[in-house]
């Protein structure tokens, strides 16, 4: 087995154990493999080990990889910041974008989504712990943004995404992550019909699954340490 196969199996085992401890069905949580900084051959190795959904932060880097891997049936999620001048690339190349935090960006993505492609699947990024320098809409502004995004014709609003600051331990992580779950539940109570709560990374996926995540985004635990970080 390759290292990526072994590590992918390890992550799947952690997810299964976390689902079991939380009394959740083993298939209640999906896995997004975050392949930023790793090349097309690493993605192909993960695909060979049964992984087909991949997350990327840097749009230019991703577009190149997507082109190199066009022969494989992969699903690509944009999870990094999207500036106005990059919306067309995102609309043309990705299946999902999880990092929408402004209506202007959502409107551009909808207008630029090519007609021959299915609607772009969207999550709203929430700044759940209020980090001052962070992207994400404040929790109290999330419902209004979600309602506006839900009206855009070429987008399909699927849920929320958050990236909390690293926490000391399971309890500290869970305190923040359960706030995201409550917000997700409140939006559904308001009728938004969301099915995706994207939270949990290599370090905190157990706490995220215990708190009600439906999609964890895991990079280093699958692909190894990143050689350059931005
Ligand atoms: C890099 C990244 C991840 C994966 O982080 P790891 O700690 O390597 O698992 C998940 N989500 C986002 C938004 C990221 O930028």
Q: Would you summarize the structure shown here?
A:
By secondary structure, this protein is of the alpha/beta class. The chain has 9 helices and 8 strands.
Description:
- The model has no long low-confidence stretch (mean pLDDT 96).
- The protein has 9 helices and 8 strands.
- The two termini are 30 Å apart.
- Helix 4 links the parallel strand 3 and strand 4.
- It is globular, with a radius of gyration of 17 Å.
- The protein has an 8-stranded parallel β-sheet with strand order 7-6-5-4-3-2-1-8.
- It has a single domain, classed as TIM Barrel (Alpha-Beta Barrel), CATH 3.20.20.10.
- The protein is an alpha/beta fold and 230 residues long.
- It binds pyridoxal-5'-phosphate (PLP).
Helix content: 40-55%
The overall number of domains is 1
H and E string: HEHEHEHEHEHEHEHEH
Overall radius of gyration: 17 Å
Form type: globular
Topology:
Elements: H1 3-21, E1 30-34, H2 40-48, E2 53-56, H3 59-68, E3 75-78, H4 87-93, E4 96-100, H5 103-112, E5 120-125, H6 142-149, E6 155-161, H7 170-189, E7 196-198, H8 205-210, E8 215-218, H9 220-223
Parallel strand pairs: 1-2, 1-8, 2-3, 3-4, 4-5, 5-6, 6-7
Pyridoxal-5'-phosphate is lined by residues 34, 36, 57, 79, 163, 201-203, 217-221.
């Amino acid at each position: 087995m390759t290292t990526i196969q072994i590590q992918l199996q390890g992550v799947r085992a952690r997810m299964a154990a976390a689902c079991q401890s939380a009394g959740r069905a083993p298939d209640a949580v999906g896995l997004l493999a975050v392949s930023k900084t790793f090349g097309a051959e690493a993605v192909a190795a993960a695909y060979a080990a049964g992984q087909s959904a991949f997350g990327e932060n840097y749009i230019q880097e991703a577009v190149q990889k997507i082109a190199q891997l066009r022969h494989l049936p992969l699903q690509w999620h944009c999870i990094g910041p999207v500036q106005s001048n990059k919306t067309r690339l995102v609309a043309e190349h990705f299946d999902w974008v999880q990092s929408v935090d402004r209506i202007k960006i959502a409107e551009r993505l909808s207008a630029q989504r090519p007609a021959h492609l299915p609607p772009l699947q969207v999550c709203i990024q929430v700044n759940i712990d209020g980090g001052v320098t962070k992207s994400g809409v404040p929790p109290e502004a999330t419902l209004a943004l979600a309602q506006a995004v839900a009206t855009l014709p070429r987008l399909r609003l699927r849920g929320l995404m958050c990236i909390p600051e690293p926490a000391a331990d399971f309890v500290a992580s869970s305190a923040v992550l359960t706030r995201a779950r409550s917000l997700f539940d409140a939006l559904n109570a308001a009728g938004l019909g969301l099915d995706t709560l994207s939270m949990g990374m290599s370090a905190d996926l157990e706490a995220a699954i215990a708190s009600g995540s439906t999609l964890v985004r895991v990079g280093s635990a699958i692909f190894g340490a990143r050689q350059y970080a931005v």
